[in-house]
Specification:
The complex is a heterodimer of chains A (125) and B (107). Chain A has 125 residues and is an all-beta fold. In chain A, 0% of the residues lie in helices and 57% in strands. Chain A is built from no helices and eleven strands. Chain A has strands spanning 3-7, 11-12, 18-25, 34-40, 47-53, 58-60, 68-73, 78-83, 92-104, 107-115, 119-123. In chain A, strands 2, 4, 5, 6, 9, 10 and 11 form a seven-stranded mixed sheet that branches. Chain A is globular. Chain A starts with a strand and ends with a strand. By secondary structure, chain B is mostly beta strands. Helix content of chain B is 0%, strand content 50%. Chain B has no helices and eleven strands. Chain B has strands at 4-7, 10-13, 19-25, 33-38, 45-49, 53-54, 62-67, 70-75, 85-90, 97-98, 102-106. In chain B, strands 2, 4, 5, 6, 9, 10 and 11 form a seven-stranded mixed sheet that branches. Chain B has a four-stranded antiparallel sheet with strand order 1-3-8-7, with no helix packed on it. Classes of the chains: A mainly beta (125), B mainly beta (107).
Chain lengths: 125, 107
């Protein structure tokens, strides 16, 4: 089955750019799915950051839109997150996940599964 | 943005008992509602999607119901491995949003 693995620097300086990659194994990233990033600050809940389709189409959370960029590398079967001008508030566990779709009686429904194990990013000088 | 509100924040329940969690959306999300379980140090695990469809491999003691703005998640008979934090999440509108979570504690 599809597995996801995040990677990237665990420490980023304030005002710098956070860069993470999610490697997809066990399936193709072009398999008609959207791929998302979700983050979780220490001791807090989950926040959806944005998503990308293999064509390069993206959707972002408006709260982060001015600072976030998600890209896809089909040749490497992976997608990436860049978050610029980071502050301590961006310290979090960052997860990558796949969005799935099913047509049900009341309409189409979406959900996130599977998830990567997460990678911790600390913003500090 | 659709705000998801979960209640209660913490629920203390005895093993073997029934647990009922609530999730309310600030506007209708139809049946586009999922439930996740998260244990310390682990990624969220999908339990329910489409408000009431159990994900593959999820035990039948987990169930979900509701549509529109009011949703319920029930564990019929709590096992020791069920004590965790549970999140609801809507995928009806961007940005997708999660509830703040309900922590299920051992009583």
């Amino acid at each position: 089955q599809v597995q996801l693995q995040e990677s990237g620097p665990g420490l980023v300086k304030p005002s710098g750019t956070l860069s993470l990659t999610c490697a997809v194994s066990g399936g193709s990233i072009t398999n008609s799915k959207w791929w998302s990033w979700v983050r979780q600050p220490p001791g807090q809940g989950l926040e959806w950051i944005g998503e990308i389709y293999h064509s390069g189409n993206t959707n972002y959370n408006p709260s982060l839109k001015s600072r976030v960029s998600i890209s896809v590398d089909k040749s490497k079967n992976q997608f990436s997150l860049k978050l610029s001008s980071v502050t301590a508030a961006d310290t979090a566990l960052y997860y990558c996940t796949r969005k799935n779709y099913e047509l049900q009686y009341l309409g189409g429904v979406y959900w996130f599964d599977p998830w990567g194990q997460g990678t911790r990013v600390i913003v500090s000088s | 943005e659709i705000v998801m509100t979960q209640s209660p924040a913490t629920l203390s329940v005895s093993p073997g008992a029934r647990a009922t969690l609530s999730c309310r959306a600030s506007q209708s999300v139809s049946s586009n509602l999922a439930w996740y379980q998260q244990k310390p140090g682990q990624a969220p695990r999908l339990l329910i999607y489409g408000a009431s469809t159990r994900a593959t491999g999820v035990p039948v003691r987990f169930s979900g119901s509701g549509s529109g703005t009011e949703f319920t998640f029930t564990i019929s008979s709590l096992q020791s491995e069920d004590f965790a934090i549970y999140y609801c999440q809507q995928s009806h509108n961007w940005p997708y949003t999660f509830g703040q979570g309900t922590k299920l504690d051992i009583k």
